[in-house]
Amino acid sequence: MSLRSIRPIRCLLGPATILVLGIALAGCVEFVVASGATVGVAAYQERGVEGAAQDTKLATQIRMSYLESSSELTTNVGIEVYESRVLLTGLVNQEQQRADAVKMAWAVIGVKDVINEIQLRNEEGIVEFAYDAWISTQLQSKLTFDKDILSINYSIETVNSVVYLIGIAQSQEELERVLAHAHSIDRVRRVISHVRIKDTVT
Fold this sequence. Notes:
Histidine-containing Protein, Chain: A; three-stranded mixed β-sheet; 6 strands; alpha/beta; globular; 10 helices
């Protein structure tokens, strides 16, 4: 299961939850990693335990900056961090919100890249959004049960029936299998990959 499917950072959406966790960044990261049982998962990922912990820390810092700035960014922008590359997805009402989200992500020390895939909201997007969780679940299941794919190396986001992927593929052939699975799911409109091939430069 990918980090996206269990959304460990979603525990940070409410200020009350942050207070319960003590807000301390190091403690929060430890809580997120431990509560999601991701230490064991990360040990088998290409990025390793330290890489997963660093990515979780960066995602937490970005989420904290969103919390301090805008409740809409907090609830409407999804954050995936893989190898210090930040993938931002979601639906917002204004172009300025999209720009602000990107700017705050870049401001976090340690971020190597920010990929802006945030969409502007419209009526069609509101309707299609109801299917996004279903699409992500279907794709995660397909990847998990495909013996030729190391599904733990992929994070999935679906917004407005557009599938976004980030992570590490073992080979071009594996990535092509992943993309084929994504395209095979009903209601998927587009598949956008930010996955890198193992042993290539990020």
